[in-house]
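just leaving the lab so this will be short. what follows is a protein written twice so to speak, once as letters and once as structure tokens for the fold. can you read through it and tell me how you think this chain folds. thanks a lot i owe you, the record is right below.

___
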Amino acid sequence: MGAKKLCTRMIPLLLCLCLCGCVGEKEDNERTLQLRADFLSRTGCSGTMDLTADYGQRVYEYTVEFSETEENGLAMTITAPAEVAGITARIAQGQTALEYDGIQLETGPLNSDGLSPMDALPAFFEAMESGYMAETGTEMIGETEVLRICCRDPELDPGQGLERVLWFDKAQKTLLQGEIRSDGSTVIRCEFSAFNLHQAT
């Protein structure tokens, strides 16, 4: 049996296991399962986000364009501010290290685990693909009804350790916002002006 077929057959089991014990309404949990299935079956994605990295004494803001394909992996290019525009980080399939084109983006780690601003998007993807979804719920962002998903270590209480929180437009199923929190403090916040998942046709 091929790896692709095996992975496809494992998706329902993964979906059930990762929502065991999740706090949320049945409808929100079902939407969350569908979003996870969409992320697991994607062939790629593309979009633009405004990223804020909060170091406490320093705050950095970037605009990042990103594109992912099965062949080339994930590429993220900073388009603003002007002094670092053009820096590109790439994550090849099966690799976790970031490779930078141009000058190194020297901002330092955001927490003791070495989290950096450019780790945010891969962390969101990992959360949606295999993270423990501890909470789901419906909220409003302006006039938009959104689904909020919080992923964290199942053995930790809310506000402890690393949490990844994502907000999706419930009607469009598009990612609107994402945050990474370290011990209750938001260290990375992303607002997506565009986000598209690509599926096989």
User: Anything to note?
Assistant: Residues 1-20 have pLDDT under 50 and may be disordered.
